[in-house]
Records
---
Amino acid sequence: MSVIDKPSSGTAMDKASPGKPPGTRFRLSFPYFLIVPVIAIVIWETASRLELLPAMLFPSVGTIVTTALDTLTGWWGTADWYSGVWYVHALASAKRVIIGYFLGGVSGIVIGTIAGMFGLFHKMLDPSLQLLRPIPIVAWIPLAIAWFGIEDQPAIFLIALGTFFPTYINARHGIRYVDPVLIRAARMLGYATSWELFTRVVFWSALPNIFTGLRIGLGIAWMCVVTAEMLAVKSGFGYMLWDSFNFLRADLIITGMISIAVVGYATDRLMLLLQHAVMKWER
Amino acid sequence: MTNKLYGVDLHRTFVSESGGATHAIDNVTISIGAHEFVSLLGPSGCGKTTLLNLFAGFDHPTAGHVYLDGKEISAPGPDRGVVFQEHALFPWLRVEDNVGAGKRLQARPAQERREIVSRQLAMVGLEKFARHYPHQLSGGMKQRVSIARALANEPEVLLMDEPFAALDAMTRSQLQSELIRIWSETRKTIVFVTHNIEEAVLLSDRIAVMTARPGRIREIIEVDLPKPRDPNSPNFNAIERRVREILWEGVSSDLH
């Protein structure tokens, strides 16, 4: 493919530089990414000062920032019963996400890999899984609570379930659709057994897909934990949101939402770092 | 001349889902001697790649047999190195690890493997690119690595499936001369699939000219010119003309 992509590849030797493979370089540029948030904050603040809604329901930017910082530090007490306890809820959510994500991710990769390698297994299993997949995670909540009670287990169950599907589908796809010419190359080099071909070619060539599944799964894991915590648990960001809603504290609701965004974004970046560390061959 | 590769009474028929049969190869017998450079030349659909795949063991004949050194070929193996049209390098391995990826090499002590790898990389002129990944190389360089990878595993024969077809003219002619040099240094038996007449005459000791539907060898032409060859010499042109005539006969008899 890339051979055709580069018609100018020409007299080869002078194109790519010998010696050190090209690395990444930091470059300072105008922070374009700030433009949209700044506009959004200005609009928000303007709307808040117009007092179309009571300040409690539509707080000013200053109030939100103070409350958010107070949940972290406990300096002003403006977050009331959430003052200084941000990390308690963050850890509660993170613990559930880590356990559920691990269970769902590992089983998704393992079952997806087996389904990708063995067509018969896929034929047996996949239709049933595809039938379960359209059921929204929320719809599992009553059963999850009925089976696992209140607290961590129903949340972990939901997260594992939500993580499983994307990792399974992507892993299976990556394993199944390996470029056949790479398999041929490995076979002519002397590798004959399925296990050799798997460890030498199939696994590596499926890694990009596996990571895609893991990243989609991570986003879903955070969705699931918030959903579960709204209904089944008394801690975590999801609980914080719902609890604050019961007291009509929009500043706390928004603090909870921002927290989920920040933590979700941070974990996605971590996953990306892991992906780059493992898949060194891709820029 | 001893037979290195030998295919006898080969047939390969593909049956489509609608039940129609395509005779990709119909009654082909060919023997290739040790250290010989043989091209399979013909238009697309003449079965030249199918024939190569039978030698490689990627495919099996519907009828007939293929042998390497008198032993029947039933599967791919390290005794037959293959260079594919699309380089088929492992993107996750550095150039040096691609070249050292063969199973025979992996079985050797690391030090010895490193020496073989650097010798092969030097042969294709890519010592300085050992630590690069394939995507950092140009098309011509990838194909050099692919040749080095196949040779490093110490095969008996080298099977090349239109290896230069996707390259631009300059790179192609550069790689052609390098292949002649590599062939005269290693004395490997090479089977080379191409649809390019000049390329076949430039490289081969013998050219198996094939025609399509059904895929058959129409004639085998000896190219009795010393290598490296001059594509502008009268002898070269005479052989080219003869090959072209045979190919045209094949095409026109197709039309009648």
---
Amino acid sequence: MTKIVVLGAGIAGHVAASHLRRKLSKEHEVVVVSPNSNYQWIPSNIWVGIGRMKPKDLIFPLAPLYAKKNIDYKQAKAISFYPEGDTDEQKPYVLAEYVAGDEKGKKEKVTYDYLINATGPKLNFGATEGLSPGNNKAHSVCTYTHAQEAWVALEEAIQQMKQGKKTKILIGTGHAKATCQGAAFEYILNVEQELRRHKVRDMAEITWISNEYQLGDFGMDGMLLSYGSNILKSSEMVEMIFEDRGINWILGAGVNKVEDGVAHYETLDGEYKQETYDFAMLIPSFSGHGFKAFGKNGEDITERLFKGFMIVDADYTPKPYEEWTVQDWPETYQNPSYANIFAPGIAFAPPHGISKPRKSKNGTDITPAPPRTGMPSGITAKLVADNIIEMIKNPNHELHHKGSMGNMGAACIASAGFGMTKGSGISITTYPIVPDFKKYPDTHGRKLGKTFGSIGLAGHWLKLALHYAFIYKAKMKPFWWLIPE
Amino acid sequence: MTQRISKYKRFMMMNPIVQFFKFIYLSLKVLVIVAGGHGGTRKA
């Protein structure tokens, strides 16, 4: 019997646990350790943030599903890692602390044969002074509770606009090294459309603020896209959309402090500026969870497991942007020191960014961190599950399942407004996610055709269809595995 | 606000009949890219 412990029940953790359970016989144990009681389909949070969906539309409780599917579930948070066990416990284990129920506060050594660390990112609001969801008129859509709070504030702003108050709205990134520009991009377009729906668009000045050097960078160094019969830069496409929607933009901005209705930021030119607002949604930086790891005798071995996020089979040798290659990116998400530990999704430490790194004249890094959205999180989690299954059957087997972000496509269906007839979406696919400048030297590292953009109502329908399809899949309903990651 | 999308283009973007076929096309296109697989890069 083999025991596989999955830390986290987000997209990566849940995909890994569900595939392991489906493919492994009942003699093997699958354990999920997560502090969250609900599964949430994060890509739809933006619709909660504009009041067009309720949190209940994108969440469901994990405990009943896992009980039904014979997955052991512990509502607990991981505290520290003991990959060699300790003097009392021979098996490797994770120290976890229960966060709810009768066992709240109790610590347990959760032993494992294989460990999947799918703990995702820590929302590091603390890295920006004054940035905290719901405070200083600044909000977040990173979780469904944050998004719900954002909608309450936005609705109040809409009511004030209806009474004639001119309002400034600021949406974008809340830190010089934040990622997830895509979510902020979706939110700003949805907010803009909702203001038109409420007939108050002329009362609002909407501004995009971002650490991107150019519009449409998205932490992916921008893209060259097939757009109809044209070839377009993603910067040109986003500029077209923003101008058409009357959205202003501030680029190369590292937000470093938020006060009541004021965002302070540093520009790449080294200037310190500020932007006032009545309502803001600013994405925080992401960081690792600060886990510690200990050896058999209690010695600190954190550096063997973590580099902020978890160390995997990437090439972490520091090198300049011009020398970055797709080969630097991990293929199996296996920790090099402990072959039974994997980190798919957002939990792995990327070798470097994807966008060209830039510093302000004062030396501040103002560059988007690399994004790892739902699709690569799901794909990497599934391949990790498949590799573990092969390792269980043949422990000396080479890992066959590989999925580098330099050899993987991704679809980003960005909502640009909600509504079955008035909605809009920007469908973007990119291949590969990490540009391969050797393979595709003339098209900015990506394959045209597989990297394309499209705007229109169909994009909204597609995003909505994916919402229902992926919640169906996450609930492990009949034939769920036929829906690809 | 600067009009950057022509009225004709906007009509095409929001026409439910045109967009229904676009929806089918996009769904298949995304599926092909997803199902198109993934792999390593180091032993290519």
